[in-house]
Design brief:
This protein has a domain at about 70-120 and about 145-255: Umud Fragment, subunit A, CATH 2.10.109. Helix content is about 20%, strand content about 20%. It has 5 helices and 12 strands. The protein has helices at about 10-15, 45-65, 125-135, 215, 250-255, and strands spanning about 70-75, 90, 105-110, 145-155, 160, 170, 175, 190-195, 200-205, 225, 230-240, 245. It is elongated and about 80 Å long. The N and C termini lie far apart (about 120 Å).
């Protein structure tokens, strides 16, 4: 009969019993280290990924600021008590454009014809460069060369002050204006104009403290009205301070009976 193959473990055990030398252990320094499955992320890779995230965020912010919304800071009290100096508002750039301007909208526009008493002071140094950069990408509120008022008259509208009760009228319809500053009259100046094509008539809610269309008009409606292409957008809400956060109404019921012309 063929012999069964010897069991190597049994053979080694017999040799050890007979005094055979034990196999020498492998020196620690000669042991092979297994490579790590996951290498730690290098500092360079981390910096590169961070830079990509920052650039992507800035590009996204720039696109949003250019086409969708942008923050603006309120510099004066001409829109009190709707807006207070220092308030920051979010302005939708979808109006005008995707959406039409409507009477009662609170609109932000660039200075149409030297309405500002003096040009805004230019920031200098590192801080000025940082602020300008943040404004460019929409992370810091603009406002130095912009104004904010309420839209009262659309192109073709006849805006006049005032009827026998001292109310402003648009296309012959007297307005009840709940947004006016407490105690302020609709207007201390009498006027009657027709808004030219492509332009709007704007007034502050604090009529006694607002250099608006009335202050810049020559009686024709041409010099006091604002070109629509100067309108940056419609203010939709207060975002700062947090305690004053709210949506801004266009008070549609104030103007719902005004007929179009």
């Amino acid at each position: 009969m063929p012999k069964a193959p010897a069991d190597p473990n049994l053979t080694q055990a017999i040799e050890l019993q007979r005094g055979a030398p034990r196999p020498s252990p492998v020196p620690t320094g000669l042991r092979t280290k297994l490579p790590l499955t996951h290498k730690p992320t290098s500092v360079l890779q981390w910096v590169r990924e961070l830079a990509i995230v920052i650039v992507a965020a800035l590009v996204l912010s720039l696109l949003i600021k250019t086409f969708v919304v942008q923050p603006f800071s309120i510099p004066s009290g001409s829109m009190q008590s709707t807006l207070e100096p220092g308030d920051r508002v979010l302005v939708s750039k979808l109006t005008p454009g995707v959406f039409d301007l409507r009477r009662g909208d609170v609109v932000v526009f660039s200075d149409p014809d030297n309405w500002l008493d003096q040009p805004p002071a230019k920031r200098s140094g590192v801080s000025g460069a940082v602020v300008s950069g943040l404004q460019f990408v929409g992370l810091y509120p603009a406002g130095d060369d912009h104004l904010i008022k309420r839209l009262i008259g659309l192109p073709g509208d006849k805006v006049a002050c005032c009827d026998q009760q001292g109310r402003l009228t648009v296309n012959g319809v007297p307005l009840t204006e709940p947004y006016l500053y407490a105690g302020a009259a609709p207007s201390d100046e009498r006027f009657s104009i027709v808004v030219p094509p492509g332009r709007i008539w704007v007034m502050g809610d604090h009529r006694n403290d607002s250099a608006d269309s009335r202050a810049h008009d020559d009686g024709t409606g041409k010099t006091g009205s604002v070109p629509i292409d100067k309108v940056t957008g419609r203010a939709i809400g207060i975002i700062w301070p947090v305690g004053r956060g709210s949506w801004l109404s266009n008070y549609s019921t104030t103007f719902d009976k005004v007929p179009d012309r």
